Amino acid sequence: MTHDPDAALLGRSPGLGEEHFVHDGLITKHPVRAIALAALRPMPGQVLWDLGTGAGSVAIEWCRTDPSCRAIGVERRSDRAANARANARELTLPGQFEVIEADLTDLTDLAGRMFHLPAPDAIFIGGGATRDLAEHCREALPTGGRFVIHGVTIEAETLLTGLHAEWGGELTRIGIENADLIGRLHGWKPARTVVAWSWTK
Questions:
Q1: Do 42 and 67 contact (CB within 8 A), yes or no?
Q2: What pTM was estimated for this model as a whole?
Q3: CA distances (Å), origin 114, targets 42, 76, 98, 199
């Protein structure tokens, strides 16, 4: 893990390698993260909600684009929330990234918390999206707000194709293959295909 809160060492461009984060293996991989940030389009002074933040990698990359950017991460698992906070200490400035422990499936709890959060300019969901959650996020965004959801399951793909059909936006499938050993030689090992939906209000 690298200590670089002001982005002086690793720079501000998205796509930091996973080795710079504390995580349990479930982390948005760096090429997919770079694609997510391109769709989220962070701008100085803006706020991101990263719902289901996990290790906080997307929120952290958002914050690193400009010192005035802020992010709120919501994570139901306390161990992952702890990882996100540790990553925030090492890779963002103090006060840039706040992590809240809450269950995204409890919309009553989440709606109450949303009321007290800084209004978002963009929202990212990297896993666990539901139709009800998407509706809440749509209402929370201002005109011009960006909404990006990624998923790797059949259920997530069904949800995102439905949102695309109803709300529009852009729907993309992302397939990435990395070189890997096959005995003494090399071959391509595919990662799970990611379905990405992005929409601007």
A1: no
A2: 0.93
A3: 20, 15, 14, 20
For the chain, give the percent of residues with pLDDT over 70: 95
Cα distances from 32 to residues 1, 27, 29, 85, in angstroms, run 20, 10, 6, 22
Which H helix or E strand runs over 198? strand 194-200
Angle at 70 between CA 58 and CA 5, to 5 degrees: 75
Distance separating alpha carbons of residues 117 and 120, to the nearest angstrom: 8
Residue 10 inside a domain? The answer is no
Reply yes or no on whether the pLDDT at 108 is more than 70.
no
> Average per-residue pLDDT in the chain?
92
Stated as kind and residue range, the H or E segment containing 38 is helix 30-40
In a domain, 86, yes or no: yes
Q: Does residue 178 belong to any structural domain of this protein?
A: yes
Q: How many domains does the chain have?
A: 1
Domain annotation covers residue 174: yes
Give the CATH number for residue 72. 3.40.50.150
Between 29 and 26, the more confident residue is 29
| Domain extent at residue 159 | 18-200
Q: How confident is the model at residue 114 (pLDDT cuts 50, 70, 90)?
A: low
Instruction: Quote the CA–CA distance of 124 and 41 in Å, as a whole number.
Output: 11
Instruction: Kindly provide the b/e burial profile for residues 73-87, where b requires at least 16 CB atoms within 10 angstroms of the residue's own CB.
Output: bbbbeeebbebbbbb
Give the residue-averaged pLDDT of 159-184.
96
